[in-house]
Amino acid sequence: MSENPYASGAAFTQDGFVPIADAKISILDWGFTRSDVTYDVVHVFGGSFFRLADHLDRFATSMAKRRIAPPQSRAEMEAILHKVVALTGLRDSYVAMLALRGRPRVGGSRRPADCDNHFIAYALPWIDVMTPEVQERGGHLWIASTPRFPDASFDPTVKNYMWGDLTSGLLEAHDNGFDTAVLCDAEGFVTEGPGFNVFIVKDGTVLTPDRGSLGGITRRSVLDLCEAEGIPSGIAPITRAMLEDADEVFTATTAGGVMPISRLNHRILGNDRPGPMSARLKALYWQRHREGWHGTPVDYSLSA
Amino acid sequence: MSENPYASGAAFTQDGFVPIADAKISILDWGFTRSDVTYDVVHVFGGSFFRLADHLDRFATSMAKRRIAPPQSRAEMEAILHKVVALTGLRDSYVAMLALRGRPRVGGSRRPADCDNHFIAYALPWIDVMTPEVQERGGHLWIASTPRFPDASFDPTVKNYMWGDLTSGLLEAHDNGFDTAVLCDAEGFVTEGPGFNVFIVKDGTVLTPDRGSLGGITRRSVLDLCEAEGIPSGIAPITRAMLEDADEVFTATTAGGVMPISRLNHRILGNDRPGPMSARLKALYWQRHREGWHGTPVDYSLSA
Question: For residue B272, which of A260, B71, B106, B253 sits 20 to 30 Å off, Cα-Cα?
């Protein structure tokens, strides 16, 4: 059998379909030089996309808010997403879609409206934000001193690569021997971490922040599961004090699902292990996946 | 004579020295996917770099603050900058140096410390942030409603590509028929615009904001010129009201130098033309260039 050149990942770029190692952008693309790009990430589990329509909806909203309009229709983007996964042959995959500002078609222009926007997609082997070992013992979460960028400066529901504040928080976390970080805003309200939403559990109620956060699809799935199970839950202002006083804390992201936290700064939560509600929601989240919940089978015939 | 393949720009990337059209980065580089990159821009005027040592100093500070350490020494970076200009043969050039986080050398790592940082440099034909025609009539500057990212979330003296707030301001400006924008912070203090510092002139005194701004090299040059000419000047808090009430407004950036403003929102400044102090400082700035002020001759022998 010949080796599949797309085994470690496949991409669609301005060069067409290419192995991930060849997937590149110009160093002059404003998607890079102005971080003028929005993106989304959907995962494939057991050969099916999870909540693909929801991801495409969010991506469309993000593009509209930033006025980035690649030439592909939604149906064409969707077909490209199927094809990048099909090329890899992966049954579990991390799949990204990006819309970049591109470069001005008018020489010397500094106007976003003069740029040729473009679409990129790629599929990689499954990625966990926290390794399975860390998820088993529970993540160690550092409450960073760096305040999250305020919603007024940039709408946090537009998924973006402007991670400067999150990276600062991550560096702080690692300096202190922690796995990852959560940021509060300047007013002391909990927001999110680098690549994930945060939840607290207090007296049986599951809450997630109402500000400074992406409208995560995994976050929505958790709230859906709570509703289906009759677990009180909601989106609410969460102060740093509420976080520190929580019975349980967990994070939620496409690249990892529900990931329990066992340490919060120097406080050990529960028994230094994932709490019961976090473990229950994590188990439910993956059980529903195995049942085909919100699944769209990948069209693997596109690899031909 | 054969055409120089570097005529429209030359770059140094992980692929070595390449024509600008071939200068690319991986779509997985954290310099892109986390905007985890810092950079600097120096210009070449009449065959000499302007304040090269100051740009390299600032770049070194930015890299240290973000803990990005490419393998090249400062002397090696400097030699690369000379070489990219030499390859183009340009006597007037826009020259950028970038330090990117790169990609993790450990599969699946999410830790910035696990990444192989790298250095990119490129030289392009001279770029003006405002076209010569706009500079002649004076730029039309829009005071944007989007607040600048706060200094506490990201140190604005670290030159960066996280332009989401600036791009929002620029879109607002263009929607209103203006050339470019200036942003205030959430407290109503003037900061900077997309790629330039801002100055006001009031009763003969020249002032530039003390916050939310890059420590611009052109800004410093303007302050140096003021000092040499005995013009009162300084770095101070500037409210939006002070900006609106200014006698003159001008901007300052490497890619354009001193650029006068003739309209500020719907207020026409002076005679709808560059003000006398702005015009004087602009003329002085370029006169000093012609005299070799802070110049470092490019080593064009490196093109061989």
Answer: B253
